[in-house]
Amino acid sequence: MKSHEWACLKDGKVLVGISDHAQKEITDVVFVELPKVGRQARQGEAVCVVESVKAAFDIYAPASGRIAAVNEALAKDPALINRSPHEEGWLFQIEPSASAELEALMSADQYEEFLKTDAGHASH
User: What is the separation, in whole angstroms, between the first and last Cα of the chain?
Assistant: First the structure.
């Protein structure tokens, strides 16, 4: 799946957010609809919505599993995504049920190459 989420395996859970490139494309984030903790998600399923001054964008689960946590700070300060997309602006954590799905995800270097192609440009 080629999209603009990032995923980082930490303590057996996958932390998910949007890339710095994506937050620049969508500009000012004004609202985030987070998934419910405990929800089961399938890889590639839209589980979260990020709204900016431009439009609303679906965020997809990078792996199948259970939503283990959400970033409650985004309810009060959705602009954290713009200020710190890879640290404080994370969206949710998922407890993966199929580790093989994680192996198929793009690395940071592969994502950079993806951005250089026409497919990498956000078509929002």
Answer: 17
